[in-house]
Amino acid sequence: MLYNIEIYFMLFIIYSILGWIMECTLGLIQKHKFINRGFLIGPYCPIYGVGVVSVSLLLTRFSNNIIVLFLLSTIICGTLEYLTSYFMEKIFKARWWDYSQKKFNINGRICIETLIPFGIISTFVICIANPWMIDKLHLIPHNILNYIVIVILILYIIDCCISFNIILRFKNLNKQEKDNTEEIAKKVRETAEEAIKKLNIEKEILIKKINISRLRLEKNVKYTRKKYQSKIKNQQLTLVGTFKTRIQGIDDKIRGYAKDLADKIANIRENQIKLAKDIKEKFMKESKLNKRLISAFPNVEQREYKRKKNRGNK
Question: Model-level pTM?
């Protein structure tokens, strides 16, 4: 049965970790000390993950025939183990395992003593472990599983880059036909630890530089802020004074215009009153109609004269 790539990647990581645990446990039992059987920094042996994924892709359809499944699993695991040993030795000039002292071995890369357990484990994985593990993986929401896969993949790629770089530095460390796993793993870890220490020292130096730069920057910012605040305040006072002066000048001009206008209006009124008085007096003196009225009604003129006289006495 085919699954999506996230499931196969998780199977690869899970079985790589389980393979590393199994190898370290066997080494602890046989040599009574811990031996890191992986060539990477992390706790995983990728050959186990690759083997399980390969067997799962190629042999799941034979899960109902245990004998065929066992035989084909043995062949696939043996081929994978042989090719891995061959190419790693060519690339890194070192061996991670050597079966030269065991019976029925081929160039010390594979032997019947390990092939049979691999066949049994592969059969168990296909028939029992995989179905249970895949069901559990399907219980994880797809979006969360994607995030988990991305994080693990990034860490795995970083580990591979660092480990391969370190191993390539020591590829001529030992050209003898023997198992160099412990020696190489030790060198990888020591180099990685030294690199981590250097990074920590550089980080502390960088933090100190950042703190010093931050203090200097804060002082410069405070000084610049204070300087420009003073300038802005002075400019504000200057602008306010200028505006007040301009407004006062405009107000004075408006008042002057208003006074001139009031004076002109007062003059116009006075002129109107004077003009009306002059017209009336002229009318009284020169108008023929007025003379006729006076000749016709002399008593009216006399009464008017007395009334004006009385007003003047009062």
Answer: 0.55
